[in-house]
Design a protein that fits this description.
The protein has 181 residues and is mainly α. It is 81% helix and 0% strand. The termini are far apart.
């Protein structure tokens, strides 16, 4: 019964986070960039991103529930082997054990900075800081180090996404001009 509850919590959390992220990234972000342009729209969206991600961190810590599986993954990483075995079966076990492949596990053990950059580009500051902060299942807010990770992730992620959205809009506009005459 406990497993069913965990999977239900995980499913609801992942779907809820996906809905928020999708609406923010693919509806609100392009709308603001189109309306205000890159130089004004990007800072506006960075402020929105800060407010939304920080609110989600507060909610995440308040509920003390691992509704994205991040804490479970962090707990497993603490027990991950430090060296990748050379035989195929050993590598397969390490890959399965770490959920995300041996290369990511290596990065996780070697470099918080590299991991922060990768997570900041792929995910939002909420997921980045929750994944990188020390300890699993602690839900203990943000330390000084966590705030630095949060702000740097906010800047990296929003710079990347603002440029990606702007380039996408520019390409679509160019194609429409070609088609329209």
């Amino acid at each position: 019964m406990k497993t069913k509850k965990w999977f239900a919590t995980l499913g609801i959390g992942l779907l809820g986070n996906l809905a928020i992220t999708w609406a923010f990234d693919f509806i609100l972000y392009p709308f603001v960039i189109v309306k205000y342009g890159l130089l004004i729209g990007a800072p506006i969206m960075t402020v929105f991103s800060f407010l939304i991600c920080y609110t989600i961190i507060l909610f995440y810590d308040f509920t003390k529930k691992d509704w994205l599986g991040i804490e479970t993954l962090k707990g497993l990483e603490e027990f991950a082997p430090k060296a990748v075995p050379k035989n195929l079966f050993g590598r397969l076990l390490v890959t399965v054990f770490n959920f995300v492949g041996e290369w990511t596990a290596w990065f996780m053990r070697k470099s918080d900075i590299l991991l922060m950059i990768i997570l900041s580009i792929r995910f939002d500051p909420f997921i980045t800081v929750v994944h990188i902060r020390h300890g699993a299942h602690q839900y203990n807010g943000l330390s000084k180090r966590d705030w630095k990770v949060f702000i740097i992730s906010l800047i990296i992620g929003n710079t990347y996404w603002a440029l990606a959205v702007y380039m996408g809009i520019t390409i679509v506009e160019a194609i429409l001009r070609l088609i329209g005459g």
